[in-house]
From TrEMBL:
HAMAP family reported in the protein's UniProt record: RNase_PH
EC number: 2.7.7.56
Domain of life: Bacteria
Record's catalysed reaction(s): tRNA(n+1) + phosphate = tRNA(n) + a ribonucleoside 5'-diphosphate
Binding, phosphate: R86, G124, T125, R126
Gene3D superfamilies named in the record: GHMP Kinase, N-terminal domain
Segment forming the signal sequence: none
Record protein name field: Ribonuclease PH
Organism: Oceanicella actignis
Top EC group: transferase
Keyword Iron attributed: no
Family: Belongs to the RNase PH family.
GO biological process: rRNA 3'-end processing; rRNA catabolic process; tRNA processing
Keywords: Nucleotidyltransferase, RNA-binding, rRNA processing, Transferase, tRNA processing, tRNA-binding
Length: 239
């Protein structure tokens, strides 16, 4: 039995509330169990200097955790004067993931920045940030379409992410902190709505895992992402 009582292939309860930030072009609050992430998307009519006159748009991301997102207080990285390696790695992952679902030619020479701020953490924060970040990005893109600033929606596919791991000797879906801290292996898997793999981060924490266990985790991720995409669709349609 998993600590949460869930089945091996069962996600934590998922909810996505849109329109939670007044000034952002797109926003949502995603809850995956006790992991809560605020995602906002901001549009700028410029691209990074190295992309000027390329005809392409850019999607990037920033990620952070509030001091009491965890069970003990963490100092704000701004107070420390630098971002941790973990923060930099996660926000680059979010940016790469979200760009996989964007036609940057249609977006044109503008930048959309997706900010993902973890309000409460209980495992899987990067996966929740990607899944919620896509909703904020989609809502911002729809605003561009309604304003007539792009000829069509530059978002060409859903992008969502979910964690998997080996806990208690068997592959399981969507690890919370209690499982993640004890997992024999853990993975973060990013996929498109059409089933394409965008990124797979997977490592053994102790003994190596087998090819069969890898295949089971990929199947679990496919099932979980399909459910997350359905939640994304419902959130966007209800916005």
């Amino acid at each position: 039995m998993r600590p949460s009582g869930r089945e091996a292939d069962q996600l934590r309860p998922v909810s996505i509330e849109t329109g939670v930030a007044k000034h952002a072009e797109g926003s949502c609050l995603i809850r995956m169990g006790d992991t809560h992430v605020l995602c906002t998307a901001s549009i700028e009519d410029r691209t990074p200097p190295w992309m000027r006159n390329s005809g392409l748009g850019w999607v990037t991301a920033e990620y952070g955790m509030l001091p009491r997102a965890t069970n003990t207080r963490n100092r704000r990285e701004a107070a420390l004067g630098k971002q941790s390696g973990r923060t930099q790695e996660i926000q680059r992952l979010i940016g790469r993931a979200l760009r996989a679902g964007v036609d940057r030619v249609v977006l044109g020479e503008r930048q959309i920045t997706v900010d993902c701020d973890v309000i409460q953490a209980d495992g899987g924060t990067r996966c929740a940030a990607i899944t919620g970040g896509w909703v904020a990005l989609r809502l911002a893109a729809e605003k561009l379409v309604r304003a007539g600033e792009v000829s069509e929606n530059p978002i060409v596919d859903h992008v969502a992410a979910v964690s998997c791991g080996i806990h208690g000797g068997r592959p399981v879906l969507d690890l919370d902190y209690a499982e993640d801290s004890e997992a024999g292996a853990d993975a973060n898997i990013v996929m498109t709505g059409s089933g394409g793999l965008v990124e797979v981060q997977m490592s053994a924490e102790g003994a190596p895992f087998s090819r069969q266990e890898l295949d089971v985790m990929l199947e679990l991720a496919h099932k979980g992402v399909a459910q997350l995409v359905a939640a994304q669709k419902a959130a966007v349609e209800g916005a």
